[in-house]
Amino acid sequence: MWAKNITGNFANVIYSLNASHLTDVVMRRSKRMILDTLGVGLLGSRTDVFQKMMQYSKIYSSDISSSVWGHQDLRLPPLYAAFVNGVAVHSMDFDDTWHPTTHPSGAVLPALLAISETMPEKQRAGGLDLLLAFNVGIEVQGRLMHCSKEASNVPKRFHPPSILGTMGSAAAAAKLLGLDSFKCKDALAIAASYAGAPLANAATQTKPLHMGNASRHGLEAAALASLGLQGNKLILDLESGFGAFYPDYLPQTLPSLQSYSWLLEQQDVAIKSFPAHLGTHWMAEAALAARKHLAKSREALPSDRIKTIVLNVPDVKYVNRPFPSSEHEARHSFQFAACSALLDGCISVESFKQQNVSRPELNELLRKTHLEHSSHNQPSFNSLYCEANITLHDGYTFSERCDTFHGHWRKPLSQGDLVKKFLTNASTAVSMEAAESIVNAVENLEKLEDCRALTLLLQGAESTKDQLKHRSGAF
After folding, report:
1. In what order do the strands lie in the sheet with 306-312?
2. Residue 278 and residue 297: Cα distance in Å, rounded?
3. What are the pLDDT digits (tens) for 134-171?
4. With b meaning 16 or more CB within 10 Å and e meaning fewer, what string describes 114-148?
């Protein structure tokens, strides 16, 4: 029986969905999301913000522990493993992005992998269990986003993963822990009291904490619900509940289980080719196209010929940073994306290192750069565009526009490009042999009998069979 309220409806669906509901499209897309998230997480495990959070988390101890990605000799209590691995995923803003706007995977996957290592021996989570719980967490985020028109645009108040990721992590954790529908309600209610972080901390080292906290708090909400802690049973129905985050929130029930329709089947995610805010990917492609008017791909840019650079972009204030002074500000700057692409003919992880951000030649281009906002260029990842208009000192002008960048859901990365990105990222933290084994494990995830084999590979192990025999625990 369907519940008579939205919260009950969500809880019943979370509890009742099973592996038979997963379609081939959902399985394929979610595996791509999982592989990409693991890769950017491994890369992120070498960042300064990750190191700070790892040092902080070491002060906590527990008889039960979970893996820290990219670190063979370090284990943390499950909540803090979920936290630091979530921070790693978003530490460089390199993780996937959905529409309406959020980063869906980073809050869910670290929580699930942390749980998978701590479950009793007779209840070990396999790859199919992980896939199902992961998709439940993604689905809950997507459905909640679709209850608000405000959520369709680039946010202005809250960072979406801090709200939606917390709810998705709680739903996914509740599913993997096998909570009944009553406790699923409580998990969602508890998670809502952990949710929300202001967007003002974008472009700082604090922003990745939003993802880590979403993963940790969702897991904690599910764990507390499993112990009987109760919350408001109408948390998704009330303006004073989840409606507090979105003034135009209009909750809707989920589809019937008899023929369940997943949002991920209808709408794929964007997977980034360089670590920065998604809007800058349109800007980079427009600038790279414009560069061809001045220089061949390997030629130096004759920047002294450029008089002005005018960028037509949507009005997104926190991505308007004329002179970024740090890697995190550079990741949130239309101006930096355009000028870095023009100067180097590409944008990569290296572009955001401090020595490249502070280059005099880059600052010279930034001083020539101005933004314009057209009224019809709305800040929606489904419809925005970016345009680079360049005027030379001799009066010659040219313009290039990007409507859909490579990696957007309308122009997805090929599987080969995705695997290449993963291997490049993962090999910064684990051996190439371990990285290739992770690719194989994710591609065949539904056949994996024990998810601990995957977490061992994420730590850097190249052989897992013997080590699995010595792992035990209970959350």
Report:
1. 369-372, 306-312, 386-392, 397-402
2. 24
3. 999 999 999 999 999 888 888 888 999 999 999 999 99
4. bbbbbbeeeebbbbbbbbbbbbbbbbbbbbbbbbb
